[in-house]
Fold:
Amino acid sequence: MKKAIVTGITGQDGAYLAELLLDKGYEVYGTFRRTSSVNFWRMEELGIENHPNLHLVEYDLTDQASAIHMINRIQPDEIYNLAAQSFVGVSFEQPLATAHITGLGAAHLLEAIRIINPKIRFYQASTSEMFGKVQAIPQKEDTPFYPRSPYGVAKLYAHWLTINYRESYDIFGSSGILFNHESPLRGREFVTRKITDSVAKIKLGKLDCLELGNLDAKRDWGFAKDYVEGMYLMLQAEQPDTFVLATNRTETVRDFVTMAFKGAGIAVEFKGHDINEVAIDTATGKTVMRINEKFHRPAEVDLLIGDPSHAKNVLGWEPKTNLEQLCQMMVEADLRRNEAGFSF
Ligand code: NDP
Ligand code: GDR
Structure:
C-alpha cells in the first residue's frame, strides 16, 4: 500500500486530493495545524473523515525539526505540499508570515526529503499568481514570471527551490502551476465562493447586497476536483517536471457575478462605472451588488489564461468541467446549505 503525506488536508484541495488517494488505495497522512477548534468540515462533506486509511497528523510547516520527525516516522512514497497562507489579499497585510508558511514551508519539506530519503516524490502547489503582470498570453511553463503580491513572491521561491532540488540532488520534485480552481468546498473569502454564497443568501432573503472589489479582473477558473487528478498524475509520471493546469478560458469577475445570479434564477444588469458600479435585479429594481473599495488590492493581477497543453501531452490531463457547470454546482450547494441554516 502506497503512503502519501498531504499537507493542508483541511483546505479545499487537501480534502479532494485525500479523497482521490484513498479511492486509489493509498494510506493518507493528512497534516493540519493545531487550533482551538477543529476545522474538518470539508472532509466531513466528502465523508472521508473516519476512513480507516486516513490519518490526521499535527504538523507545523514552519518547523524544520517537525518536518524531519514526521517524514522519518511515516516514510512516505509521496508528499503533496498543499498547505499555505493562500489568500493573496492577506499576504499584503502579513508578508512575513506568508513568506515563512508559503515559501519556507516548502524548503523544510525538501530539506527533510534530502536528508531522510531522496527517493520520496514531492509535489509543490505552485500558482498562476507567479505570472502576475503577465508577459505573454496565454501563460505556459516557459512564460517569464512577474509576481504582484507577497504571496506570489513566496510561491515563486518555493517553485524555484523545487526545481533546484530536482537539479541539485536528483529529487523527484514536480511543480504544478495551477490556475484558479474552485468548488463548493472553496473558502468563503475567495471571490467565486463569496459570490455564490451571497447570491444564495440574497435569493433566500437573508442578505440584501453583495460587496466586491475589482470586477474587471479576468481569471481562468476550473474545478478543484479535476485539478487534484493532475497533481496525482504529476507524481506518477516518468520524470519530474513543471506543468500548467488550466482551462484556457478567461472571464471577468463581473461575468461570474452574472452567471451566479442567473444560476439562482435572478437576472441582473450592471449600471454605473468604477466605484459607483452596481448590479440591479431586473425583476425588482433592487441593488444586489455594489463596490466596496476595501476589497481592492494594492497591486492587481489583471488577466490570467493558461495553456495546459504540456499536461495534456505528457500526463493525458484535461479539465472535465466547464465554468457554467462549476458555477451552477457552487450556487446549488450554497442554496442547500443556506436553506438548511448553515454555511461554512
Ligand atoms: P486553502 O486555503 O483552502 O487551504 C490551505 C491549507 O493550508 C489549509 O489546510 C490551511 O489550514 C493550511 N495552512 C494555512 N496556513 C497554515 C499554517 N500556518 N500552518 C499549517 N497549515 C496551514 O487552499 P487551496 O486548497 O485552495 O489550495 C491548496 C494549495 O494550492 C495552496 O498552497 C494554494 O496556495 C495553492 N494554489 C491554489 C489555487 C486555487 O485556485 N485554489 C491555485 C494555485 C495554487 P487551515 O484550514 O487550518 O487554515
Ligand atoms: P486570487 O483569488 O487572488 O486569484 O487567488 P480571489 O478569488 O481571491 O480573487 C480573484 C480576483 O477577484 C477579485 N475580487 C475579489 N476577490 C476577493 N477575494 N474578494 C472580493 O470581494 C473581490 N472583488 C474582486 C480579486 O481582486 C482578484 O482579481 C486564488 C488563490 O486561491 C491563490 O491561492 C491561488 O494561487 C490563485 O487563486 C491562483
Remarks:
- The first strand starts at residue 3 and ends at 7.
- The pocket of NDP (ligand 1) is lined by residues 8, 10-14, 33, 35, 39, 61, 82-86, 101, 125, 127, 178, 180-181, 187 (CB under 6 Å).
- Residues 103 and 216 are 29 Å apart (CA to CA).
